[in-house]
Amino acid sequence: MSRPGGTRAVPRITYLKVRNYRALRDVELKDVAPLTVFVGPNGSGKSTLFDVFAFLSECFNEGLRRAWDRRGRFKELRSRGAEGPIEIALKFKIPDVPLITYRLIIDEDGGQPIVAEERLSWTRGSRGRPFDFLSYSAGKGFAIKADQPDPDAEREHEALAAPDMLAVNTLGQFERHPRVKALREFITGWHLSYLSATDTRGTPEAGPHEHLSRSGDNLANVIQFLHERHPRTLNVILARLTRRVPRLETVSADILADGRLLLQIKDAPFNTPILARYASDGTLKLLSYLVLMNDPDPFPLIGIEEPENFLHPMLLHELAEECQTASAHSQLMVTTHSPQFVNALNPKQAWVLWRDRDGYAKATRTDHIRGIPEMMEAGGQLGALWMEGYFGMGDPAGGPV
Description:
By secondary structure, the chain is of the alpha+beta class. The chain is about 30% helix and about 25% strand. It contains 13 helices and 17 strands. The protein has helices spanning about 45-60, 65-70, 75, 165-170, 180-190, 195-200, 220-230, 230-245, 280-295, 315-325, 340, 370-375, 380-385; strands at about 10-20, 25-30, 35-40, 85-95, 100-110, 110-125, 130-135, 140-145, 155, 190-195, 250-255, 260-265, 275, 300-305, 330-335, 350-355, 360-365. It has an 8-stranded antiparallel β-sheet. A 6-stranded mixed β-sheet has the order 10-14-15-3-16-17. It has a 3-stranded antiparallel β-sheet with strand order 11-12-13, covered by helices on one side. A hairpin with a 6-residue loop joins strand 12 (about 260-265) and strand 13. The longest helix is centred in the first third of the chain and has 16 residues, at about 45-60.
């Protein structure tokens, strides 16, 4: 999959608005950081917010209809008791390029999904008025062939094959629409992680894989690729892993006689390694996260749900620091229940999700909570303040009403 990486300019999401998407009746996130972490009780909407990114990614990679069907169609997707379409709006910034807004409105017609509105807009300068360089509705509209804002540039009117097709996904395959193409590559390149320690224990067919899969079932193949093509990167990963897992010495991916690949882990006191299927869940998940965040061709956006699962609490602050480092080249969206993980964050990186009286999710950035910035400046830790109840919202006992 071709996607932005390395030294190429990668878009950064700075704003997200979601309307009528399950518990997210009307949620708006402003000034989104390169590392953004969502906390809150079970059922507060964290996983739903995570799923917004997964839904967009699937719409671009598999098509709107499949992403729609997989989530139970409008009956299950639209917020309970709400009317009207689903709306998702993103603002993203590319260095040396004006702010771009992507707006997608999804409705239904005769029980079938349609793209009711899809727009890409430039914003020129801090006070400039935005104008559309792509505008489509139900498969009809136009796109401007331009690399920079120019209202007088040529407009291309081209009908799509069906009203459920995304114009950005279709037109973004052509070089004549460079900014549309950049957004398409950005979204199709997202990695929403659903790592499973069980899946990493398999013995896949041998052959190097450049990137870790969402479940981690090709971990051995990626280790093989790094060993063959990027040994320095693999050494960095293993050095960081061995500092965190006592007595672990090395990890290898060996080709068996039947053509399968065997992942093995060797501890320092012993002469022979053990098979990955007998390694601890925590070791395999930590190795997977390190591989994911040290990819030589980094994903533009990485989503991780509850990285604390199976990991020792003392490792979570260091894992959060790994995320801080990775956010220099990838934007990270993380959900967590771990105060140890949150202790490594500043208040602009953490959002609290909670439910209002009507049962809909709300989101508040922690630097907007009264007293939190001052207590942090006095030496407080964000996770500790959370556990001590200073957020005043997002606790299992309930949030503000």
